[in-house]
Amino acid sequence: MEHTETLTRYMATFVQGLEQAGVRDVVISPGSRSTPLAMTCAEYKAINHWVNLDERSAAFFALGVAKEQRRPVALICTSGTAAANYYPAVVEAHYSRVPLIVLTADRPHELRDVGAPQAIGQMNMYGEYVKWFHDLSLPEGTPRMLRYANTTAKRAVQEALLGNHGPVHLNIPLREPLIPDFTLDNLWDITTNHNGTPITIGSRRIEEQDLELLVKTLQRYKQGIIVCGPQMDTDLGEAIAFLAKRTGAPVLADPLSQLRAGKYDKEQVIETYDAILKDEQIRETLQPEFIIRFGAMPISKPYLKWLRSLDSPFHVIVEPESGYREPAGVAVHTIFAEPAKFAFQLGDRVEEPFVDEKWLNTWKSMNKTAKDLLLTETPEEGMNEGHAVVKLSEVLPDNSVFYVGNSMPIRDVDTFFMTTPKQVDIMANRGANGIDGVVSAAIGTGANGKPVTLLIGDLSFFHDMNGLLIAKQKQLNLTVVLINNDGGGIFSYLPQADHPDHYEELFGTPLGIEFQPFVEAYGGTYYSADSWEEFTNFLAESHATHGLSVVEVRTKRDENVPYHRAKWESVKEAIIKQLED
Prior knowledge:
Elements: H1 3-20, E1 25-28, H2 35-43, E2 48-51, H3 55-69, E3 73-77, H4 81-84, H5 87-96, E4 100-106, E5 133-135, H6 143-161, E6 168-173, H7 208-218, E7 224-228, H8 236-247, E8 251-253, E9 269-270, H9 273-276, H10 280-285, E10 290-294, H11 301-309, E11 314-319, E12 333-336, H12 339-348, H13 357-375, H14 385-395, E13 400-404, H15 408-416, E14 424-428, H16 438-445, E15 452-457, H17 458-463, H18 468-474, E16 478-484, H19 500-508, H20 516-521, E17 525-529, H21 532-543, E18 548-554, H22 557-580
Parallel strand pairs: 1-2, 1-3, 3-4, 4-6, 5-6, 7-8, 7-10, 8-9, 10-11, 11-12, 13-14, 13-15, 15-16, 16-18, 17-18
Helix pairs in contact: 1-2, 1-6, 3-5, 3-16, 8-12, 13-22, 14-15, 14-21
């Protein structure tokens, strides 16, 4: 078999293996060495291929697709620094448990480490951030090596999905010539396994005797809480609502828990706990005897402070797979089980609520008080970042994605986004908490056709404007709510703000640019909202418009901190009075 036929059949069986294992989307970063992979994916109709010119953007776009579709997505790039540009998204995928199949084309072995152009060390280049690395063999056309290519592709998907999901890395050396020949006979019938995904993964389940012991332990306590941090299972809300009802415990729901939106019962959901727990006196008054946590550690820093100050409550963390996510440094009892099934299973064993009704009612009353104060709008407040979240939450489309930037946007969502019956998936890049790739990841969540609304600050938006190109090219629906306070607003709340000699240059970092020309360059519709009426009207119009829309809200950093602190102070005073009565 001559070189071109060998290359073509090897790549075909490899790509077919990816599809047979469940990959439906491939994101391609253009380049020469990756030509056989890219062209084969484009030729193979069972896989959707996306072309994204900027490698960093491409990787975060793939991460967004994988997040929304809950399945592995493959990434393809050429050799050299192209692969290095995937690194930030690989790190994010690792910490946020998103399955990515990273396929880096490489020079053949004889051109490595000899000064050949566009040849860097790609062996294990992502280190501990991938679940599996393999340097693929050079293409061969024997039946055995074709099976090897096919089964290695399937194994890559399997490794990405086993246990906690995450990225894997296959490095693929290729010799020239690189152009495949798709006129070959029987090109897509060279493997024997055409029966769909050859992977079956079961879920963990707690044993009955352990469950009975847990119920007996919990029933000794009268004050407890259920906590749900960032996680992506939209079915968990109903299960936790059932568990909360059976135990009588309040549910502290992080904005990324998928518990603040949906049609399940939210009667016991406490969405304002971050504002409630900001005051030390209130934290000292509330002393839970048990905590059951699902998902990752919540975003809320006041919750973290409160947790560290508690007098050793019985603390249960439910994890679907192995892993340790307890940054507070407190003693925990970890249960490895499928979270929704465990919540139903535990609730079924509880015959009647054992949590003191007064405890639950105290939390519900505090939540109502905090919500009323946080949602109250006064004319002198003007345009501000908190009420941008309130107004936005009211007009978000049903069955849509709400993507949230890091720094201040996610914290404002934590404070001001209340429960809603609409089905809205709330997502963010909270694995590594970075500002890079947020635009691209948000666009990726809309690849399947869902409308997407992105809330983002001006620095994060500027950092990833290249990501807008694929939205333009593919006419994907994205509404961006751009909070422009001309710099890094999060630093205004940190000690750096007390050092004015260096603050603006090193931390405030004002951009001083107009975003409208950039938005229009990417084919988007630009709006500038100067009132809440304009803001909601523009949002409604953008959600009814196909393609990219950006609604800019200009705020002032020096007004933002007093606004937030006044809100939190009003919550503190009202709740302290409430607890004393």
